[in-house]
């Protein structure tokens, strides 16, 4: 059975792919990975939704993830946690765990971008399989260095 590590969404950044299309790169890091994170390519719509869930952008109408959270909560359920599980045929997999009003936990297969978009809205914990560390990359490849740092010569 896979072991999971407490993780966090470090950032979601916009990029341009080789065909000139806007994409997102979701950076997920585990507590003990240091300055490394797994970069997961996501769509432009999912990037917008995650940024909205984080309060980084405004959008006048509810997005699909907002609606889903409202429905879950109206039914007396809650998102308990999400997991980033595996890389299968170049596609990352995730699971959303929902507790119903009777306390039962239900698991749902999900895209990592959808799972994270839900988690950031309800402050649900994110976990990542420790097996995915081999796909983690240096964050400096994706994020600028913190301001105020003087580069070493």
TrEMBL record:
A GO molecular function held by the record: nuclease activity
PROSITE patterns assigned to the protein according to its UniProt record, in alphabetical order: BFN
A Pfam family per the record: BFN_dom
BFN domain: residues covered: 4-140
InterPro entries hit by this protein: BFN_sf, Bi_nuclease_dom
Superkingdom field: Archaea
Designated name of the protein: BFN domain-containing protein
